Predict the 3D structure of the following.
Amino acid sequence: SFDLPPDADAKLKTAFNGKAPLHISTRMGWLKSAKHQITAAPVKLDDEGMRVDWAGLTGTVSVSADHRGLDGKLSMPSLVLANGKGEWTIKDGEVTANMKQPDGQTMWVGPSTMKLASVSGKLPARGEGEPDTVALTGLSQTSESSIKDELLTSSSKLQLKSLEARGFKADELALDMSMRKFDAKAVDALQRL
């Protein structure tokens, strides 16, 4: 556990409700693989007009014996950030990855995802009107990369079920991007710069 120091600010101790901000439990396999259970404590802070309400984070990350592969999932139920001017709320966040480092490469390849059930915000009003609002639902990004015959292929798809902002509304938005047959060694060399 990563505990707060004994002399930590009282407001910070209250925000974490006396819990360790981060706890990682690791199990090592006989062949040097590892499985990490990660828990970040919830945070509730209301101080000088700033409010943070984070439901914490949980996850599992498994690392291969050669430390060149990982499989993991992190989940965050909710996060609220607010001040006197506005408020943002994120619900049901999740990140997954099943990545590996091919021999002779420093880059990681494989599938990964990021999902948010919703992101909403209340922004200061323009003039005398009601506060502006922004609402996104069903936000996700799915990525995949692989190396075959020393050529890198990578794709990413960004999707948004709905978007509402300042009277504008759109449904089922998507953006697909891909690159194919890039020299994997050249891309790897660029990443090392």
